[in-house]
Amino acid sequence: MKKSIVVLMAFAGMLNGYSQLKSPTGFLGYEPGDQFSRHHQVVSYFQHVAEASPQVVLQQYGASYEKRPLYLAFVSTGENLDKLETIRTDNLKRAGLMSGSPELSVSVVWLSYNVHGNESVSTEAALATVYELVRDGSDKAEWLKNTLIVMDPCVNPDGRERYVNFYWQYGNQPYNANPDSWEHNESWPGGRANHYLFDLNRDWAWQTQVESQQRMAVYNQWLPQIHVDFHEQGINAPYYFAPAAEPFHELITDWQRDFQTQIGKNHSKYFDANNWFYFTKQYFDLLYPSYGDTYPIYNGAIGMTYEQGGSGRAGLGVLKEEGDTLTLKDRIDHHYTTGLSTIEITAQNNEKVLSEFSKFFNQKATSNYKSYVLKYDGNQGKFDALRRWLDAQGIRYGSASTPKPLSGYHYGSGKTKSFSIGAEDIVISADQPKSVLTSVLFEPKTKLSDSLTYDITAWAVPYAYGVEAYATSAALSVGASKTTPLESTKLSDAYGYIFRWENMQDARLLTALLKEKVQVRFTTKPIRLGDKVFNQGSFLVTQRDNAKIPDFTTFVSDLSTQYGRAATAITSGFVSSGPDIGSADVRFLKAPKVALIGGPGTSSLDFGATWHFFEQELGYPITTLSTEYFNRVDLNQYDVLIMQNGWYSDFKDNTMQKISDWVADGGTLIAVQGALGKLADSDYSELSTFNSDAEKAAFEDMDNIVKEELKLVPDADRERYEIREYVAGAVFKVHLDKTHPLAFGYGDSYFSLKTSASRYGYLPSGNVGVIKSSEDHLSGFAGQLVRDKVGSSLVFGVESVGAGNMVYMADNPLFRSFWQNGKLLFTNAIFYVGN
């Protein structure tokens, strides 16, 4: 099957024999490092290599949001490439995901380049690396006998092209090494992220972006033994390679740690021979599970990040602080060297690499918890989404029954409680091939060997999805999953139809109705129809409102079927209990016109997550505005304005007054995280940093004490001392007022991922979500001073200003798009608060 998976391959090459292999210089017409290659040139070169060499197979595995192709190059001996499928299934057999015994002894080394678009050197290094592996006379040929190399030459082509286009436009010719030159200073949003400005290196586990979804589908079909993610860092930083820094997750094996060290020592001999600077064991830890090093590690690989100094500031050459010029050619050499060194040390240790990979999956996770139980609450849309995510991970789940009650850690309270298992509960056993990944993603509390970590420290799936769950030490036997089929949506003529408001599928149906110009109403109080109760936020459509739509019943039936939502017929405007359909408590829903502010002064990542949410998840139109011309925009065109996380340094008093006046005239402002800083303790808002003058004085006294203590802290200990005021992505329980429109569809509590230590006092009214005490901290690292301060603080609130509303979100419900339970809350702010 040597070329059976090649995409866009020239069949003439197969018939006439392989054409002569050209070097990158010979094919592209310039030496690597002389200029940045555009993505189509990279694709063309890899296609050429696949056509010219029997040692390369090229596979297109997807396309980016901007429709650029995504490729994998499989590099090995021709004999191995003829057995690609056998090598792939051998890996799955070693992992216990397929039955049978492996036939071949071939290790898989997966090299991922350019996940951050403006860390652009790695794609250039990929061109040099693939040529060196397969050129005639290469001394690397011996490595390929027992090694398959999988190369992803550009994980993030949209971000890379944004950066490369910037550099071609603003770069001097010849390049100017002065860091002040425009070519070294990207404009907002920069080239790091993908089309939707999402950091793809944080998306391995959550797979919210199309590039990640397509890549991970293939990755999980292979499960390589080695994975390297090539990156760049600041221009003055030496090269970084494994071994990684603490904290290592406790489930990372001794072998995974040891072989990282062996790989690092192999790199060091080449770097030492060239007198290149490098460092190891600092900064880049192995904890958060959604990185390009940790996710592979939790799937049995030796996962590593390699960091070259450079990034978007480096260009073709830049002057470093010690006076040396760092060139693109230097950067290529370093990534080229570590890439080949990784392959070399793997080939030399092939049998050990394969045997330890098998051991990883045969030795189950040593977590305290053997099973995880997710309690089904009737919210089928939410649980369907959770099942799809589990399927994407390859995590096995099902149902279980036990005649006696169990006890386990209750995620919602942080305490041990008794519980029983229902027929439709999702039960996940840690006794499965993906044991380590399961335990890491579901662990209630992350164990930190070192509190200084690179990223968030809490991510447990039950919190992210907002489901009641238990972790138990009982080893449960899991059978087939049991689910209740969705009610039939075949409708007959009626007074109207009502839909529950529980999850994002309900929200998608609502936006579909609004885009079709259907008149929609929603209830602000529970409605009972016979034996069914529809809580606040449930929305309905009536014949009276939609008389102009032909065959309205069929239209609603078809649309509800399309979105998998059950419609319940309303036979009369007189309901069993609660407000009648004509009541003022059943309000008309005006389809809002929504604007989102981005540009300099805003977080590009949080702007992007919101943009993605509207276009790819909610399916609702949004107008994006830039801070650069915001003052010229007529806000009267919009009903909802979103100020996502940012500092808004260019928004002076006149701009904030403009927004305040627009709100008073009936607009809804949604201010998130950092944006609250423009409103707190101002003339535009009742939002305050403190609950009282006494609380302010107490916190100021606390801060003064910390400052005095810090004076005598040894310099080496200052960072650890200061983290008492730091929160590293920790989960807090938020107490909700579920009767408020902002909290429709929720219960009495919400799990919030806190990524900022900023805190705000309670409002005079409209305190929709609050933290009541430091005991509401459930998981993840939060310094003691943070826990003390955020007790008795506002997380979500709504202030009435004139005819409009200001919605305050101290924590970002759309953080990285993976905090699924926050999305309905954000949707409430858009559709229900202003109505």
CATH architecture of the largest domain: 3-Layer(aba) Sandwich
Shape label: globular
Question: What Rg, in angstroms, do the CA atoms define?
Answer: 28 Å
Task: Enter the CATH topology name of the largest domain.
Answer: Aminopeptidase
Overall tally of domains? 4
Can you summarize the main beta sheet? 10 strands, mixed
Classification by helices and strands: alpha/beta
Number of strands: 34
- Percent helix, as a range, is 25-40%
Average pLDDT reading = 93
Q: What percentage of amino acids are in beta strands?
A: 15-25%
Low-pLDDT stretches are: 1-17
The CATH homologous superfamily of the largest domain: Zn peptidases
DSSP summary: helix tally = 23
Multimeric state of these chains? Answer: single chain
Main CATH class of the largest domain: Alpha Beta
Distance from first to last alpha carbon: 61 Å
Task: Summarize the structure in short.
This protein is an alpha/beta fold. The protein has four domains: 11-362, 3-Layer(aba) Sandwich (Aminopeptidase); 371-472, no CATH class; 496-589, Alpha-Beta Plaits; 594-831, Rossmann fold (3-Layer(aba) Sandwich), CATH 3.40.50.880. Strands 25, 26, 27, 28, 29, 30, 31, 32, 33 and 34 form a ten-stranded mixed sheet that branches.
